[in-house]
Amino acid sequence: MHSGRHPADQYGFVNTPIYRGSTVLFPTLEDLTKRNARFTYGTQGTPTTEALETAWTELSGAAGTVLAPTGLAAIGLALLTAVKAGDHLLVMDSVYRPTRIFCDTILARMGVEITYFDPLVGAGLEALVRPTTSAIFLETPGSQSFEIPDVPAIAAVAAARGICTILDNTWATPLFFPPHVHQIDMAVEAGTKYLSGHSDLLLGLVTANQRWFPRLRATFDAFAMCAGPEDVFLCLRGLRTLELRLREAERQGLALAQWLSKRAEVVQVLHPALPSCPGHAIWKRDFSGSSGLFSVVLAPCSQAALAAMLDGLELFGMGYSWGGFESLVIPFDCRSYRSATVWNPPGPALRFSVGLEDIGDLEEDLDRGFARLRATAT
Ligand SMILES: *Cc1c(COP(=O)(O)O)cnc(C)c1O
User: Fold this and answer.
1) Of 229, 323, 347, 351, most Cβ neighbours within 10 A?
2) Residue nearest to atom 1 of ligand 1 (CA)
3) Residues with beta carbon inside 6 Å of ligand 1?
4) How many structural domains are present in the chain?
5) In whole numbers, what is the pLDDT of the chain averaged over residues?
């Protein structure tokens, strides 16, 4: 509530306003040549970006934060801070798909060798480490398939060899999983999701511990890949209600996951807080909450039956991204973007992002959807 705010510096107004700008004026030649000022140029930061960086650094228990225009840009900044040509990179098999594409194109082209690993490997990851391994990229839970990796066990393997650990922590946020407490060196958050909460902006944040922050900041400065001032302002505003919205997403998500687990059309619920999710025991040990994004596997059905269910939904929108106020659903099939593990469920899979609508209304919408699915299947 109070981090990153200085009302006395802005005539008492509660929120830091949107500072826009490239040029910052220096009063004297000496000030100009010595860059003797709190802010020196637009790419180096403004009071608005500094407010979000400061608040996020405090919340994350980090040494510092940089802001990027998107979550994916933040992932790129973290990876380019940790690896160079000739290095070996270990990447969890169920990372966000565009992370995988970044590794297989940009990093591969730079001469970085990449090995994907089973999210549930735990301390067994040691067997994949090479003398050239410089970083391990994790995401918890895994995108779409929701495996929970043993972050402390993997971080211990990394720490013993000075390997950098990077975590995409978008699902839990630092509120449910403080990354640096769990020995993560750099953590990424897509502010596009819960920090926004309203599906109307794109932003990424990278935090780092004392050891990695100077290098992260140098990478950021070299790219000058800055976030837009209005998106930064909206994230600062979202931050003030983040915990409240996340707790509600947790309550709604759990209620819907439990309701779905009792449906005959559903064969598996992949929600970290339910025992049917791979790695559930690790979630229980390490996390203080769950957010509103989870998946289910349906019993086998035709594409036409699935379309009948999804096309007629009134409250659940179909679209990418998540973490907004409205509920979303997308079908997914990660067979083509897994290489260390096999994704072969008996039927189609759906990912839900549960919004803030009335839970009874959401269940009725899905109940009618399942009726259409059954009617089309027979
Ligand atoms: C959406 C997402 C991102 C990327 O965020 P963008 O702002 O859309 O680029 C990264 N990681 C995870 C886990 C995401 O869900």
Assistant:
1) 323
2) 321
3) 70-72, 96, 139, 143, 168, 170, 190, 192-193, 202, 204, 321
4) 2
5) 97
